[in-house]
TrEMBL record:
Keyword hit for DNA-binding: no
SUPFAM superfamilies: alpha/beta-Hydrolases (SSF53474)
The protein's Enzyme Commission number: 3.7.1.-
Protein name: Hydrolase
Length: 281
């Protein structure tokens, strides 16, 4: 794959937050949303998928507050509600009345909240490893188990972030086949996780926002939704997307047997084929 670079762009919210994004391509607007792990960005999470999507869509790689070069802040509101409101304001600022949303994990939770509250803003919704509740139906979400509850604090604690800690975090928590973890991904995530303003904010317990469950509102999502899951996703079992399938008004489910939390990075061609086919239906 040829190296891909996109220009950094910024808009400022009414509250004064700077929102960072990158965009390219032509066609229907499509917004990528990243996960919540240290150093995550939308461009980084979907770097190996971007070329295929840019051929068909006007793509926006949007970074939520706290990520990329967006403003770093302590979120003092319910986390998904806050980021859903920021996403809606971002769409207003760049002139997007309605878009496809392709989302990783934490970003998918914010997108579900937007779809519930403002379905007119979302064309189709694609969720990858999103878990907007405190526990699964069959198994508790593994993210909440005591040995994983401090993933972010452990990364930023002790001697602080290092490339070695980032590589271990990605291999242990996000990949199924460690050989698919590239130096580009490790270096990109590490660089974005060491922003001085972020390091300062990360010292505050609960800086990501108040925990929020969307479990009671899942039935209100009427947006056509594709739920994607890696069978080896360490953060939770397939009972989570099965719940989505049961609760959402119009949902499909695809489970990848050879992937984990970031199988779009491990198996980009398969991910591209599945998602692009769904969006074109």
């Amino acid at each position: 794959m040829e190296p891909l670079e996109l220009e950094d762009q910024f808009v400022t919210t009414e509250a004064g937050y700077q929102l960072h994004y990158q965009s390219a391509g032509t066609g229907e607007p499509l917004i990528f949303l990243h996960g919540g792990g240290p150093g995550a960005t939308s461009f980084g999470n979907f770097y190996y998928n971007a070329p295929a999507f840019l051929e068909q869509y006007q793509c926006f790689f949007y970074n939520m507050p706290g990520y990329g070069q967006s403003s770093k802040l302590v979120v003092e509101a319910p986390m998904y509600s806050f980021h859903a409101s920021m996403l809606a304001e971002f769409m207003d600022l760049v002139g997007i009345p309605r878009a496809h949303l392709v989302c990783q994990s934490f970003g998918g939770c914010a997108a579900i909240k937007l779809a519930i509250d403002h379905p007119e803003r979302v064309n189709k919704l694609v969720l990858m490893g999103a878990q907007p509740m405190f526990g699964g139906v069959i198994d508790p979400l593994k993210l909440m188990s005591k040995h994983a509850a401090n993933i972010i604090l452990d990364y930023y604690g002790g001697e602080g972030p290092t490339p070695e800690k980032m590589r271990r975090l990605l291999a242990d928590y996000e990949m199924h086949d460690d050989s698919k973890l590239t130096d580009w991904t490790v270096n990109d995530r590490f660089a974005n996780s060491t922003d001085p303003e972020l390091l300062e904010v990360a010292r505050t317990p609960g800086f990501m926002g108040q925990p929020e469950s969307l479990l009671g509102d899942l039935h209100r999502n009427v947006v056509p939704t594709l739920c994607l899951w890696g069978l080896h996703d360490w953060f939770g079992g397939p009972d989570v997307p099965l719940l989505f399938l049961n609760q959402f008004a119009n949902a499909q489910l695809f489970i990848e047997g050879q992937g984990a939390h970031h199988w779009q990075t491990e198996l980009p061609e398969r991910f591209n084929r599945v998602v692009l086919s769904y969006l074109s239906e």
